[in-house]
Automatic annotation (TrEMBL):
It comes from Aliigemmobacter aestuarii. GO terms for molecular function: RNA binding. This is Transcription antitermination protein NusB. One of its GO terms (cellular component) is cytosol. Involved in transcription antitermination. Required for transcription of ribosomal RNA (rRNA) genes. Binds specifically to the boxA antiterminator sequence of the ribosomal RNA (rrn) operons. Keywords: RNA-binding, Transcription, Transcription antitermination, Transcription regulation. Residues 12-145 form the NusB/RsmB/TIM44 domain. Belongs to the NusB family. InterPro entries: NusB-like_sf, NusB_fam, NusB_RsmB_TIM44. Pfam families: NusB. GO terms for biological process: DNA-templated transcription termination; transcription antitermination.
Amino acid sequence: MTQTPKKQMKSASRLYAVQALFQMESSGQTIEAVCREFETHRFGATYDEGEFVEGDVDHFRKLVAEAVNWQALIDQMTDRALVAKWPIDRIDPVLRALFRAAGAEMTKTETPPKVVITEFVDVAKAFFPDGKEPKFVNAVLDHMAHEAKPEAF
């Protein structure tokens, strides 16, 4: 099934949000600096390695800002979805960024939880094409969705 350009842009913004959150955590850069870099140098940019897809700037900014603003709440919700021996601070930093972006969209937007889960499982597949991480992401996000929006199920 082919996505419309608007849906493709939203999907790209989710991937970029995960990358931006990862970059902020690993480099200590501010939200303003990272968002500016992504919007200037990644959204729709063309490099020798290929072309970056245009993203939905508003959706990207909202996901990153909400993930930062509500990080403690989202991390607690993620922790409850994880096995007790594996709190969020012990998981891969890319997965941590993914759960934060997905948690922000799941709790701070009107996007249906099933859409959020599907979209972020696809993001996980982009980062971990041969691993078990996409199934893990699906399970954790499903648990988070049932907690965040039980009325959707």
